[in-house]
Amino acid sequence: MTHNGRMKIKYLLVLFVFALFLTGCVSTSVISSGPDTYMVSASGAGFATAGVRETVYRKANKYCEDRGLVMVPVSFKARPGELGRHPPSADLIFRALKPGDPDIDRPILDDADLTISNKKTIRVLSDKETPPPNIADELMKLDALRKNGVISEGEFEKAKKRLLE
C-alpha cells in the first residue's frame, strides 16, 4: 500500500471516530424506583444538556402515554459534558399517575438543572378559627330543610348554587 493510501485510511479512521463523538450514543431506560415513581437517565455527546434533557422528558412522556397515565416530574438533574472527562447526562425522576388523580399538581420548576418539586400551601387553623364548612354536609342540611318545608324549592336551589360556586 502506498503512502497516500495509508494517509487516506488514517484520515477516514479519524473522521469516523470524530463522527462517532459528534453523534454520540444516548442510552435511556425507564426504571421503577417506588410506587408509581420511575427514573429515566440519558447521556449523549458534546457538551450541552439540551439533547439529553429532551430525551429523558420524551421517554418519560412516552412511557406514561403508552399506559394511559400522566407524567408528573419529581426531580431533574443535568450535567453538561466536559472534554476528556464525561459526556452530558440527565436524570429525571417522575410519577406515573392516573388521569384525575388528586396528586397531580402543576410542578414548580425551581432550577432547570437542579430540582422540580410540587409545592402546596397548608393552612393551619388556630383554636379560635372554625374550619370551612363541608359542602356535602351543608347540602344535606339544606335538603333536610327543604324536605321539612322550612325552605322552598327555589330557596334550596339558590343556596345550593351559592355553596357549589
The percent range for strand residues is 15-25%
The overall strand count is 6
Oligomer: single chain
> What is the overall number of helices?
4
What percentage of residues falls in helices of 4 or more residues? 25-40%
Instruction: Provide the domain count.
Output: 2
Biggest sheet: strands, sense, closure? 4 strands, antiparallel
The chain-level mean pLDDT equals 77
Shape: rod-shaped
**How many angstroms separate the termini?**
87 Å
Low-pLDDT ranges: 22-26
Query: What sequence of helices (H) and strands (E) makes up the elements?
Result: HEEHEEEEHH
Strand order of the largest sheet: 1-2-4-3
Structural class: alpha+beta
Taking all Cα atoms into account, the compactness measure Rg is 29 Å
Report what the structure shows.
The protein is rod-shaped, with a radius of gyration of 29 Å. It is of the alpha+beta class. The protein contains 4 helices and 6 strands; from the N terminus they run αββαββββαα. It has helices at residues 3-23, 50-66, 135-147, 153-164; strands spanning 30-34, 37-43, 70-79, 89-97, 108-109, 116-117. Mean pLDDT is 77; it is low at 22-26. It folds into 2 domains: 22-117; 123-165. The chain has a 4-stranded antiparallel β-sheet with strand order 1-2-4-3, with helices on one face. It has a two-stranded antiparallel sheet with strand order 5-6.
Task: Reconstruct the topology from this structure.
Blueprint: H1 3-23, E1 30-34, E2 37-43, H2 50-66, E3 70-79, E4 89-97, E5 108-109, E6 116-117, H3 135-147, H4 153-164
Antiparallel strand pairs: 1-2, 2-4, 3-4, 5-6
Helix pairs in contact: 3-4
